[in-house]
UniProtKB/TrEMBL annotation:
InterPro entries: Cbr1-like_FAD-bd_dom, FAD-bd_FR_type, FNR_nucleotide-bd, MRET, OxRdtase_FAD/NAD-bd, Riboflavin_synthase-like_b-brl. It comes from the Bacteria. SUPFAM superfamilies: Ferredoxin reductase-like, C-terminal NADP-linked domain (SSF52343), Riboflavin synthase domain-like (SSF63380). Residues 1-106 form the FAD-binding FR-type domain. This is Flavodoxin reductase. It comes from Candidatus Vampirococcus lugosii.
Length: 236
């Protein structure tokens, strides 16, 4: 386990101000496998509070530019997610420890299905960037993401999940909104279309989000013949 300090350099907020993408500068050295998480220690009202956050950028970005990003959704009125979405300012320094977690790609299978809802998009942002832009050693990829309304969509989502061609399909759902450019529905609605696009059941699946969504999507994928060993999930 390693420790390092990070200092905020940029914050992108959604229209609701409840979803933020935070980019930090690393002070010191740190390495991880894209998709893993760290424990972040904050100091709120003179108390040190630690929470787990998935790293939403790649290890290559960290090694090349000393930058590390996180995607945080407000989940409390005075906890750490409130600090990250409402209070943190440029230059604030925090401590990270880690890395932890199994949400990583062993690169055995070249067809990918990425699924996330809400703050579960954190590690998916890093994995997507690494597969498509850094390694570019894949056959086909489908990415399915869902949020409640258009106002909850953070700019980083539109910027990152923007390709649609013969190799890549992005399917973005809004569960409570009908807005051009998005589908109205839930990630479960897109699973068959994703398998059809990939054209095979030999797919590496990464699912991250609320436990009920992860369990439901996993059961649907198993019933469609996707192998259990190829479904990697993270619930929070
Ligand atoms: C492996 C892992 C990775 C994670 N990665 C991420 C990530 O990338 N991004 C992310 O956003 N989160 C992530 N989380 C969740 C994160 O660790 C925190 O649990 C979350 O940000 C809430 O922390 P908090 O201190 O704000 O809330 P806490 O004060 O700890 O509250 C915990 C929960 O209580 C409930 N709650 C508290 N106050 C209120 C209130 N006023 N009204 C209603 N409900 C309330 C909420 O459900 C809240 O989630 C991850 C968790 C794990 C285990």
């Amino acid at each position: 386990m390693n420790k390092a300090k990070i200092s905020l350099i940029n914050k992108i907020s959604s229209k609701t101000n409840e979803e933020v993408f935070l980019m930090f500068k690393l002070i010191g050295d740190f390495e991880f496998k894209t998709g893993q998480f760290v424990m972040i220690t904050t100091n709120i009202d003179n108390k040190n509070i630690k929470r787990a956050y998935s790293i939403a950028t790649t290890n290559k970005l960290l090694q090349d530019k000393k930058q590390i990003g996180f995607y945080v959704k407000k989940a409390s009125e005075n906890g750490v997610s409130n600090y990250f979405t409402q209070i943190i300012k440029e230059g604030d320094e925090l401590e990270i420890t880690g890395p932890y977690g199994h949400f990583i790609d062993n690169e055995e299978i070249k067809n990918y299905l990425l699924i996330s809802v809400g703050s579960g998009v954190g590690p998916i942002l890093g994995i997507y960037e690494e597969i498509i832009n850094e390694k570019n050693n894949f056959n086909k990829l489908v990415n399915i993401f869902s949020e409640k309304t258009e106002k909850n969509i953070n700019g980083i989502i539109q910027k990152t999940f923007n390709s649609n061609d013969e190799k890549v399909k992005n399917i973005l759902y809004l569960s409570r909104d009908k807005v051009e450019g998005y589908r109205n529905g839930h990630i479960q609605d897109g699973l068959q279309e994703a398998i059809d696009f990939l054209g095979t059941k030999k797919i590496k699946v990464f699912i991250c989000g609320k436990p009920e969504m992860v369990d439901d999507a996993t059961n649907i994928l198993l019933s469609k013949g996707i192998e259990k060993n190829n479904i990697i999930s993270e619930k929070y």
